[in-house]
Amino acid sequence: MVFGKMEDNETPLECVIREVKEETNIDISVYTIIDKGVITWGVDNASVTGGMYVYLVDIEESYDYKTPKKVDEGILDWKKIQWILEDKNFGVGEMIPHFLPDILNEEKKYNHFCVIENAKLTNYEFKELITN
Predict the structure, then answer these.
(1) pTM of the model
(2) In what residue span(s) does the Nudix hydrolase domain sit (predicted)?
(3) Above 90 in pLDDT, residue 128?
(4) Which tens digits make up the pLDDT trace of 95-106?
(5) Cα 46 from chain centroid?
(6) What is the set of domains in the chain, with CATH numbers?
C-alpha cells in the first residue's frame, strides 16, 4: 500500500502513479491499473476521518525489487498475503482482512467503510459502486 496526497488538478489515478514512483521508484503506468473503489473510516465516533482510493496492479512475480528498503516514510518491504490477513493486526491492520479479499478476487468496485473505536475495529460495511 502506498499512501499519498493528491496535488491540485491531479486525478486519483495520476496521484497513485506518481506516489508509487516517488516512494518506490516503480513505474506502474506500464502495467494494467484496476480501479477497485474506495476505503473510508471513522475513528472514535467521527463519521469519516480518513479515506483512500484503491487500485490494483499486478506486477510479474519475477520483478526484482530488493527489500527491506529504508525510504522517507519508513521501511518498505514485501509482505505475503497470509501475513497481512493475520488475526493480530489491530487498528487499521484489522480492516485489511475485510476488504482485501474483495480487492484481490472480485471484479466489482466497492466503497468499504470501517469504524474504529479505541484502536479496535468495531464495524465494517461495504456497498458496490456502480459506474456508468
Answers:
(1) 0.79
(2) 4-79
(3) yes
(4) 888 899 999 999
(5) 21
(6) 12-129 (3.90.79.10)
